[in-house]
Design brief:
alpha/beta, 17 helices, 12 strands, globular
């Protein structure tokens, strides 16, 4: 594959002063009366995204489990740590790059897998892929994508990407996804373990809205030969059938619209695809013993996402895994769960340098990334902020969000008196006084 044409903003390994260059670009443009396409302040970015999205889309993307306690805990955990700057240490030459699974990355940042991106913008996953590739930042393709992985891979050229896997009830489908990920140039499989069933999400429930029932977010399935072959097989009758109303007809129309291919295929398979997806989407019976099968089926590194307990981190090592992601799914699965940053130190201690430790959930800017690294993370995953950028300005919005996060990371690193992200450690932090 060939690399997309680099832009002037691409982070190429050691990129001098991305923070100051980003600041300068914004201020110079401002002198000509031009403001950033997306707000640099997260609260304003969130507001702009909400205004750009439908009520249903906003609920799905921004909502969390239960009363939102886990989402609040994720942010509170970052707020409890204070960075401790040091002065007169010559931080004029800085390097944000890190080594991760054999690849040198320009910054300790990946784009987290987020499903149904068409809710935010018509460009969906493909727009995000182009933005990530233009900056050399890895993207983790979502299992619940709106665009097949092959199209996203083509948009990324040789830029790094991983594939997130939800383990379905059909092992043949899982194996097909693995083979496609390998063929698409993905460099790791991210097995998400905390979503073997959907969490209780009141914002979606109160709207009675699940995008998958409209054929959204299932593009990996409807582009898969194993899944498509299964559509001719008999399926059990649904436990609940909706009444025939105008709304039901609109749902059927959405299913037809979202199924790929000619009208004949849409008429034959659109409804069956949704039914088959619902029947096979997740596997609550998944157990540690199943990982041996997965290890045999792919040559790619396997990273376990959703690790919050030290014992589970140790078992990941014993199972021959290649990394872990400390994650509570952005607060979307268990209300009142431990915050990821609170869980991180014990996971790092349990891993003891044997595997890379990544972290997501609650990261909103570059300073957050530095706090996670100081507590032992190898790298971080960015989630909702880039989706909000996508909602506001499509591909360009995603690119601006990434550049802003990296810029803040670079400036804050220098202001801490550090020159590389590997310089960060517990001595950079202090717990905030109790309220």
């Amino acid at each position: 594959m060939s690399m997309p044409e680099p832009t002037q903003h691409r982070f190429q390994g050691h990129n001098p002063e991305p923070g100051r260059s980003r600041q300068t670009e914004i201020f110079v443009a401002g002198a000509g009366g031009e403001s950033p396409q997306v707000p640099t302040d997260f609260a304003h970015l969130r507001t702009a995204a909400r205004e750009a999205m439908s009520v249903e889309a906003w609920a799905y993307v921004a909502g969390g489990a239960g009363m939102g306690a886990t989402m609040r805990a994720n942010r509170s955990a970052f707020d409890r740590w204070r960075l401790v700057p040091r002065v007169l240490r010559d931080a004029s030459d800085r390097d944000l790059s890190v080594e991760l699974l054999g690849r040198r990355l320009p910054a300790p940042l990946l784009l987290a897998p987020i499903g149904v991106l068409e809710l935010a913008h018509a460009g969906a996953d493909e727009a995000v892929a182009r933005a990530a590739a233009s900056l050399g930042i890895p993207m983790v393709f979502s299992n619940q994508a709106s665009v097949p992985m092959e199209r996203c891979a083509a948009a990324m050229g040789d830029s790094p990407r991983w594939f997130q896997l939800y383990w379905s009830e059909d092992n043949a489908l899982v194996e097909s996804f693995l083979h496609r990920a390998e063929a698409s140039g993905c460099e790791a499989i991210v097995l998400t373990l905390d979503t073997t069933m959907l969490g209780w999400r009141p914002q979606d429930l109160d709207l009675a809205y699940l995008p998958f029932l409209r054929g959204m977010g299932i593009a990996q399935y409807t582009s898969d030969p194993t899944f498509l072959a299964s559509l001719d097989e008999p399926m059990p009758a649904p436990a609940v059938k909706p009444p025939l109303t105008i709304a039901t007809l609109r749902t059927a129309a959405a299913q037809l619209r979202n199924f790929p291919g000619p009208w004949s295929a849409k008429r034959r398979f659109a409804r069956a695809a949704v039914q088959r997806f619902v029947a096979t989407y997740s596997r609550p019976s998944l157990a540690w013993s199943d990982l041996a099968w997965l290890r045999e089926k792919t040559r790619l590194p396997i990273v376990l996402k959703g690790i919050l307990h030290a014992d589970d981190a140790r078992r990941a090592i014993d199972a021959g895994m290649n990394g872990v992601v400390v994650s509570n799914h952005g607060g979307r699965q268990v209300d009142g769960s431990i915050a990821t940053l609170d869980a991180l130190p014990r996971i790092v201690e349990a891993i003891d340098g044997q595997l890379p430790v990544l972290v997501d959930s609650g990261i909103r800017g570059g300073a957050d990334v530095l706090k996670a690294l100081a507590l032992g993370a190898t790298a971080t995953l960015l989630g909702r902020p880039y989706v909000y950028g996508l909602a506001v300005a499509g591909e360009a919005g995603v690119r601006e969000v990434i550049r802003n996060v990296v810029a803040e990371m670079d400036l804050s690193l220098g202001l801490l008196g550090r020159t590389t992200v590997t310089d960060l450690g517990p001595d950079c932090l202090k717990k905030a006084p109790s309220a």
